[in-house]
Amino acid sequence: MKAAVLWNAGDTAVDVIGDVALVGLGPNEVRVRLAASGLCQTDISAMAGTMPTATPAVLGHEGAGVIVSVGSEVKTLSIGDHVILSYAPPCGQCRFCLRNQANLCVGVFDPFDIPAKFVIRGQPGTGLAGLGTWAQEVVVPQQAAVAIPQDIPLDIAALLGCAVVTGVGAAINTASIRPGDAVAVIGCGGIGLSIIQGARVAGAGRIIGVDPAAERRAAALRLGATDTVDPVEFVTLLDQVNGGDGADHVFEAAGRGGTIRDAFDATRKGGEIIVVGAGSMDDEVSFSAFELFYYEKTLKGCFYGSSDARTDFDRLLELWRTHQLDLEGLVSDRLSIDDINYGLERMREVVGVRQLVVYDL
C-alpha cells in the first residue's frame, strides 16, 4: 500500500512510497482503511527530532476510516464500522482510567515503546504515536478505534483524533472557565482554533487569539474570538483586559518555552495557564520562587485535552451537530497523499490554518 515514510529524524520531507505492508492482525486488533488524516505540527516536530520517534516511521496521528478486519477477540467493533483513531486510548482498568484521567493511561499505548506495525521495504517500521495515519491502512488495538455514526463525514471526523479533542478539551476539561471570563490563546493553528471554540462553548466573554499569521487571526475571528492580535501587540491589548490585570486563562498552543513564559506573564493574579502545545524535552522555562508563591497562578499541563476518547468524541460530535462547533472551518485545504510535503511546507511557513490529507476508500 501507499504511505508517507520518515526514514530518519532530521529529514525535511517524507517519502511517499507504494510498497509498505502491515504486520499481521492480532486477536485484539482491528484493521482500518483510512479515509482522511490531518497534518499537525506534532508531525513536523517528529520529523525534526524534537518528538522522539523510532524510524523508519509512518507519520500521522489523527485519522478516521472504515474497519476492514477484526481480530478473533474483538467484541465491540465490526467490519464496516466507521471509526476515529485515538493515540491516547484508555485500557479502562488502570489507576489513571479509574481516576477519570483516561488520557494519561499507558495500558494500551506506551509512547516510549511503540511496536512495529509496518513493514517498510523489508524493515520493521513504527507508526507515529502508535498509529501512522499517513498510510492507506493501519492495524491498531481495538481500544484505539472509536466507532461513530456512519453519517459523519470522515474528513471532518479525522480532526477529532487530535486537534479538536485536544483544543476543545483543553477549554472544557482542563481549564476552569466560568461564564464571562477573559481568555487568551497563543497560537491559532488547528489546536488553537479548537481552544477558541471550546472557550466559546464554555461561556468565556472576551477571547483573544494571538498569532503572527494574518490568515490564522482571520480564522480565529470566524470561529469565535472577540479579538485577535499579533504577538508583538499582545502586551498592549492586555492593558484593556480585567483593568490591566491580564486574562483569567491563557492557553499556550505553540509548544515553546518562550511563549509559555509569555502566557504566564499575560495571566492575572490567581489565573491559570494551560500548556497545550507539544514542546521539546530540552526547552526549559524559568519562574522565580517568589512569583510562583506571590501571584498564586496555576500552571497546568494538558495532554490530549484531558479527554476520554470513549465518551468525548461523542460529546464533540454532538456539539458539531448542534452547530456549536465549526469543524469545517478548521480546514484550509484538502490534499492528496502525494501532496503531503507541500502541506508540511505550508505549515512550516505559518501560512495555512489547517490541511487535510484525503485518501480514497
From TrEMBL:
GO biological-process terms attached to the record: formaldehyde catabolic process
Superkingdom as given in the UniProt entry: Bacteria
GO molecular function: S-(hydroxymethyl)glutathione dehydrogenase [NAD(P)+] activity; zinc ion binding
Alphabetical list of PROSITE patterns matching this protein: ADH_ZINC
Keywords: Metal-binding, NAD, Oxidoreductase, Zinc
Family to which the UniProt record says this protein belongs: Belongs to the zinc-containing alcohol dehydrogenase family.
Protein name: Zinc-binding dehydrogenase
Species: Mycolicibacter kumamotonensis
